[in-house]
Amino acid sequence: MIQLTDVQKYYQMGEVRVTALDGISLRVERGEFVVVLGPSGSGKTTLLNMIGALDTPSGGRIQINSTDLSRSKRGERFKFRRETVGFIFQTFNLFPSLTALENVQFVLDVVGRKNGSGKLALQALESVGLAERVHHFPHQLSGGEQQRVAIARALAKDAAVILADEPTGELDFRTGVQILELLKQQADAGKAVVIVTHNREIARVADRVVQLHDGQVASDGPPAGGPVPVSELMW
Predict the structure, then answer these.
(1) Could you say which of 70, 71, 140, 202 is the most buried, measured as most Cβ atoms within 10 Å of its Cβ?
(2) What pLDDT, on a 0 to 100 scale, did the predictor assign at position 70?
(3) Is residue 4 assigned to a domain?
(4) Spatial contact of 128 and 168, defined as CB atoms under 8 Å apart
(5) CA distance 142 to 66
(6) Mean pLDDT throughout 4-9?
(7) pLDDT tens digits, residue range 151-210?
(8) Is residue 6 assigned to a domain?
(9) pLDDT band at 222 (very low <50, low <70, confident <90, very high)
């Protein structure tokens, strides 16, 4: 479903060329729950942005289903993101002038699911434990609550690909476990789920763990001992 072949990404900083991705080849199938690990600067977020068509590669090829993102135009990439990707941003990217409910409902309206969008948005917020906060604005919510709004927004979209950048970074342990259960359910329902994180404990529940180092895949395989249930996590 997701196929990256020798993907490279360079940034020109004056006379210096900075390499973010250096020949990444990776495949993620429908129904897979993949965790990408690596230190800061290893290329994790850049990789996620490539898969989500938020950025374009300097070289190589990115194919998702029948869409070749490496050769697509700006409008085609926007259409792909709108129809195919649910993105959970580390910085939340909520609209400050909209309530939690309106933030989720807005995305549903954009993708053409206006009928019943309010009910779907409410259900998504309830699933992440925010039933009592749906009419609050982002500035009235804690960092963890804002993160859960961002997660609800991605889940409500019912996209084929879920991309998450540190989705539990602002959450306490109990809420983090709840969110990981929801993301695992998305994979079980046939979606491709890719999470980037520093948290090695989260990698224990993955079908596959991809280790990045200096913009390259250092290893790619199941976690040691095989995946464990989310209930066994102890971070």
Answers:
(1) 202
(2) 87
(3) no
(4) no
(5) 40
(6) 97
(7) 999 999 999 999 999 999 899 988 999 999 999 999 999 999 999 998 899 999 999 999
(8) no
(9) very high
The tally of domains found in the chain comes to 1
Residue 191 belongs to a domain:
yes
Rounded Cα–Cα distance for residues 196 and 119 (Å) = 30
How many CB atoms within 10 Å of residue 144?
A: 16
| Amino acid, single-letter form, for residue 176 | G
Residue 204 is part of which domain span? 29-57+74-232
3 state DSSP class of 176:
helix
Residues 6+ positions from 218 with CB-CB distance below 8 Å: 38, 211, 212
Query: pTM for the complete prediction?
Result: 0.93
Determine the length of the chain.
235
Residue pointed to by tokens 């690909």: 161
Q: Which residue has the tokens 């690990």?
A: 37
102 lies in a domain? yes
CATH number at residue 122: 3.40.50.300
